[in-house]
Amino acid sequence: MPTISTNDLKNGWVIDLEGSLWSVVSFQHVKPGKGGAFVRTKLKNMAAGNVVDKTFRAGEKLERVLTNTKDMQFLYSDGANLVLMDNETYEQVEVPADSVEGQDLLAPNSEVQVLFVRDAPFRVELPTFVEVTVTRTDPGAKGDTVSNVMKPAEVETGATVQVPLFINEGDRIKIDTRTREYSARV
User: Fold this and answer.
1) Sign of the CA dihedral running 168, 170, 171, 174
2) What is residue 44's three-state secondary structure?
3) What is the largest CA-CA distance in the chain?
4) Could you tell me what percent of the chain has a pLDDT over 90?
5) CA 84, CA 126: separation in Å to the nearest integer?
6) Domains (ranges, CATH) in the chain?
7) Which of 41, 46, 86, 182 has its CA 20 to 30 A from that of 134?
């Protein structure tokens, strides 16, 4: 594993600190008038998401973890795993389904971004918006269009989302994967 000096830190780099992976959010080199220089950092835990302040001595050695991001295509889910295909090499990778937030909104052949850490898939990021077809919903009541009333609708992926009353079965809709909210009719 490559080791780096705290003097060489850059934003976005991932380091292994006490067995956990941390992303460098920000860093500042400080040279006080008295005493040795040090590096003040903000680090984000890549698994838990919490941000901590950590101070290192200048020149201290850390282990840098190499990461890369690939665009991949979601093929199918076998219940326990999502099967993804690399768009360049056509290699298939399995990722635990419960580790992907919002995976029930993914339709087959959707594009996702996968962060690889130490050549293993670490995190799958869904596209911001997905387009899906409504497979089942109740018809809206006539005349109830003044208020912003929503109704549940089941989409082709099996997920249930809230949609406006004018949406019918067979309509294509756009859903925001971050909030799971209806965005527009396509």
Assistant:
1) positive
2) strand
3) 77
4) 61
5) 12
6) 3-65 (2.30.30.30), 67-125 (2.40.50.140), 129-185 (2.40.50.140)
7) 86
CA quadruple 89, 69, 63, 118: dihedral sign: negative
**pLDDT digit string, tens, across residues 68-119:** 999 999 999 888 899 999 999 999 999 988 888 888 888 888 899 999 988 8
Q: Bridge partners of 57?
A: 38
Q: CA 89, CA 111: separation in Å to the nearest integer?
A: 15
Q: What is the pLDDT of residues 43-66, one digit of tens each?
A: 999 888 899 999 999 999 999 999
C-alpha span between 151 and 92 (Å, rounded): 38
Contact between residue 136 and residue 145 where contact means Cβ atoms under 8 Å apart: no
* Residue whose entry in the numeric block shows the structure tokens 């962060």: 115
**In the block, which residue shows the tokens 């973890």?**
65
- Two tokens at 98? 């419960």
What's the pTM? 0.75
